[in-house]
User: Fold YHS domain-containing protein from Roseateles puraquae.
Amino acid sequence: MPRRGLLAALAIAASVVVTIPSTALAYDETSASAINVDTRGVALKGYDPVTYFGSGGPQQGKEQFTAQHDGATYHFISAASRDAFLANPGKYAPAFGGFCAMGVALEKKLDVDPQAWKVVDGKLYLNVNKDVQKRWLDNVPGNISQANSNWPKLKDKVPKTL
Assistant:
């Protein structure tokens, strides 16, 4: 990596670490799970993953409409939304197990804010907060490429060890 690129990457990494509150780490920092879930095993903090792909944006799901995928429970706004997810979970499940896309690009497994999101090329990407998302949006292709490269070696690691 050229010196200028390395310096830019280090500056971004430093600013991300500074803007991430301590509570922003994956909920269970001792879990080696590849899926970001809460203590009840719920992904996306209960948001309906299908709604990220519609014009209305993300919506909180309802406990009466749930489905399991890769060991996580997802909530949905309706039976129709749940059924769409079950027909093609790979389309709707978030990238990097629902961990922060910028965090993965920087070799971290961080929790997310379900309101800090973007669908890119048909895939849902989440970020730890809106400030980090702004930095992620500065180089979406590069950050996705770096995160895709990092994810195989990070996905089964314990967040607090990274």
